[in-house]
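Notes from the 1:1 (GR / supervisor)

We went over the backlog. Supervisor wanted to see one worked example end to end before approving the batch request, so GR pasted a single chain during the call. The sequence is below; no edits were made to it. Supervisor asked that the structure be written out right there so they could see what the output format looks like.
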Amino acid sequence: MKPPAPSDWETLRRLAHLLKPHSPAIGIALASLTAASAGLLAIPLVVNDMLERANAAPPSPPSGLQIATMAAALGLLAVAAYVSAVLLHEVARKVCARLRIDYVTRWLRASMGSHRDMAPGEWAERLNTCLTDIDWFIKSSLGNFLGVLLLISGGVFMLFWMNWRLAVITILVCPVAVGALKFIERETRQLLRQSRAEGEKMAGALQSVILGLDVIKAFNAEDRELGRFRDRQQRLMDLQRRESYISSLVEPVFIATGAITAMFVVFFAGRFIAEGTMSAAELVTFLVYLMFILPNLRTLGLQLARWRHVKVALEFLDDASRLQAEADAPGAEVLSPPLHGRIEFRNVTYAHEGRSRGLDDVSFEIRPGETVGLVGASGAGKSTILNLLLRFYSPTGGSILIDGREVSRCTRVSVREAVSFVPQEGILFDGTIRDNVAIGRPGACDEEVRRACEAAQAWSFITDLPDGLDTHTGDRGLKLSAGQRQRLTIARAFLKEAPILLLDEATSALDAGTELLFGEALRGVLRGRTTIVVAHRLGTIAGLPRVLFLHGGKIADEGTHAELMARNGAYRSVTGSIGH
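Structure output shown during the call:
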């Protein structure tokens, strides 16, 4: 169940906590704004004095001191605006940098299961949109917000100081305006959150279209996907339109408030002047202060609109804190070397949340240095076994052991240090080839990287590239072919030199010739390593000394490929669909 939305005070405390490390810079910015506001509030008093001198007998022009005072007030305003803008821009950059690191840290530390509910594109859109709103608020609204509050509060004080009766009449209109604004804030905040969520879904859909462009074109599905994207965009636009209908009421509320206030002031001021309790100069000064207040009330309304965006942004970012983080069991031990690589599954059961059971009472043992294949139809549980060994998930029943030690009682870091993993998709990161391969063992020298690339049949194409190991792979490795990316991920696993190697259909992107060379090199690399191969091609299965056949989340049979072909019809059916 989703927790209730935070109140304004809770959000304000959250923002204050983020700004606290930057208190000196914010203090100087606020002091500058306070001085500027005080200077502005002094101007109407100077104007009043000028009018009194002009109405005196005989009249006299403004004095040099009055002119100098007004010039100093305006100069102070310019300097204060510059100083506060520079300081608040720096604060905004640092706060957003901290939030960005915190957000990505939470995302990386979260368990794999926590990421099922939102696509990566949606996470990226949430981060970018929320940080943009927070950055804008600190740079452009925080100083204005406080400056406007100072001018309004100072202006109200001066109204009472000039003529308390007229000031009381002026503020009688405020309760109606405040009530209308609270209604607007409540409604727009809810719609804003809905539109943000829909925007994130649209970003996720856009990422899917970009990454799946080849599939879309292969199935002539451009029009279908474009229609689906238009429908999602239309839902977003409908929410944004409803939000704009309500938020746009802020301007009319302030205009109406200003018009009614001015009407009351003029009406009652005329009576006070006729009674002799107020002079014309005092009325002009009162109106000048009123003109300070009314436009700034409109500005305050705009800042409150930005506050709604910040409130939703902080709320959305805090959703990441509710991701379930990976945590080791209390007293977890380190699975320290030397390790032989013996793997045991004892009555292991695993059920995906909200889905059918992935593994059902699975038991098997793999001896140190043994190579075993996993074969089964899609959904049989092959990838689940690999994910459990990597501790991406924890079994719901039974136990998994490495060298006789239960992995659930060992730290995740030490278990993953003992395992090298090659996923089905060749996933690379934006950087050089050296950077991507050395993820397997940071600090490895170029000679070690070269040997791993040679074993993965990658060195031949690397030497053909102008920059060799310094070649940039691009975002997701898109500057390289699928087969080249796959070979680099294999090299990454080889470089790690872990005692256990997991190959999840690792040769699926390789051509037949490269796979043959890879198989020959693989026998040397696998010597002494315990290897589990999720087989994709019949040629890979046929060469394995032992195959586990999974069916319906269970180990249905095991043996060599020839033995299983001879006695198991279900195995023949699955391997027949795999082909060469």
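Supervisor's comment: The CA atoms of residues 85 and 139 lie 7 Å apart.
Batch request approved.
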